[in-house]
Design brief:
110 residues; 5 helices; 62% helix
Length: 110
């Protein structure tokens, strides 16, 4: 889960090394970013990567067993996430809002 997010970890390490009070270029304002990045940004990136990997694994194993996989709700209505779902091999989408159907149709046909 770390490797896909290595850029964020390197950025956090550099910000920490540079701007904390004992860093190379101490900066009180920029040093305030270190803690929120550690508490919120990095765990969120790791969790998002884990979910994407889990979805891809579930779809692959379901297809091996001859099971079709569909997804419904908000995830199926998110244009960026739908791209990932299609790449993962999702067989069907159930959209939460009828207004998103034309948008998703255009996105899928591209």
């Amino acid at each position: 889960m770390v490797m896909p997010n290595i850029g964020a970890f390197i950025a956090w390490g550099l910000i920490t090394a540079m701007f904390i009070p004992g860093g190379w270029l101490p900066n009180e304002h920029l040093a305030k970013m270190v803690s929120p990045m550690l508490k919120y940004l990095l765990p969120t990136l790791i969790a998002f990567t884990a979910v994407k990997n889990a979805v891809a694994l579930i779809v692959a194993n379901a297809h091996k067993a001859g099971i079709k996989v569909g997804i419904c709700g908000e995830a199926a209505s998110d244009p960026e996430f739908v791209e990932f779902l299609l790449e993962a091999g999702i067989d069907s989408l159930s959209l939460s809002s009828p207004r998103t159907i034309p948008i998703m149709k255009r996105r899928i046909r591209k």
